[in-house]
């Protein structure tokens, strides 16, 4: 994979990728390394998965820094960001990818706690991590923030049983556009990326659920999508994301189908 990077704008940069243990996060970290990013901090809950990503990142030519963390616990975020900047230095690129698709199932079965957990990880954590890194980016006059969203925001009615997930991603896109306007003309761009239907562990987890619990419509949709053979690879989706980083777009909702 070759990213078109006129002037080598990504070369030598330092990045943070959340949810980097597998799937789109792992593939994005590797794509950043191949595009010339020099140092990549890898964040997720599972240390073992992060170590696997680190080996791939280093094989692609970048230095990897592994930091296990539960971003669903907001009290950890400020300390983790401070530790990272003290260890790897100034952060130029932030990819907020960590997310959960739970809770799934009929709306009447939702608990307040499960919904709060989803919003905390999917919407609040990206804003807090971004907020912690933005002052440094603004001070240096350059930065790239990408919040990984979902195409389901455009068509929430098709994800019956997954309304909480759709709502968290819609809120994330709203936050993205608002933050982008707030930091316009600073040299820092903030955009969202809809990665497409990707063959990830999240999709596998949904297919493995009891249809009676998550709902037959939702379960059958994901089973049929996988059976069609049309799911993207994480690598293909990550290429689209990283390709956008060389541009100065701000406040945009990118889609994997957009030219990068």
UniProtKB/TrEMBL annotation:
Source organism superkingdom: Bacteria
What InterPro entries does the annotation carry?
A: NAD(P)-bd_dom_sf (IPR036291), SDR (IPR050259), SDR_fam (IPR002347)
Q: Which family does it belong to?
A: Belongs to the short-chain dehydrogenases/reductases (SDR) family.
Name listed for the protein in its UniProt record: 3-oxoacyl-ACP reductase
Organism of provenance: Agromyces bauzanensis
């Amino acid at each position: 994979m070759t990213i078109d990077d006129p002037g080598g704008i990504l070369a030598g940069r330092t990045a943070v990728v959340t949810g980097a243990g597998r799937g789109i996060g792992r593939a994005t970290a590797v794509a950043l390394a191949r595009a010339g990013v020099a140092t990549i901090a890898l964040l997720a809950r599972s240390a073992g998965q992060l170590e696997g990503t680190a080996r791939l990142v280093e094989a692609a030519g970048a230095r990897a820094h592994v930091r296990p963390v539960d971003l669903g616990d907001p009290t950890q975020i400020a300390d983790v960001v401070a530790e990272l900047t003290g260890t790897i230095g100034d952060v130029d690129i932030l990819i907020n990818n960590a997310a959960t698709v739970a809770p799934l199932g009929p709306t009447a079965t939702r608990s307040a706690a499960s919904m709060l957990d989803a919003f905390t990880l999917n919407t609040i954590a990206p804003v807090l991590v971004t907020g912690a890194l933005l002052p440094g980016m603004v001070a240096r006059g350059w930065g790239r923030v990408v919040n990984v969203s979902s195409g389901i925001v455009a068509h929430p009615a098709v994800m019956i049983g997954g309304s909480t997930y759709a709502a968290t991603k819609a809120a994330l896109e709203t936050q993205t556009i608002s933050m982008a306007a707030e930091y316009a003309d600073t040299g820092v761009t903030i955009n969202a990326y809809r990665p497409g239907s990707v063959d990830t562990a999240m999709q596998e987890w949904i297919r493995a659920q009891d249809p009676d619990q998550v709902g037959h419509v939702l379960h059958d949709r994901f089973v049929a999508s996988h059976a069609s053979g049309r799911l993207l690879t994480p690598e293909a989706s990550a290429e689209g994301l990283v390709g956008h980083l060389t541009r100065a777009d701000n406040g945009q909702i990118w889609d994997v189908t957009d030219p990068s």
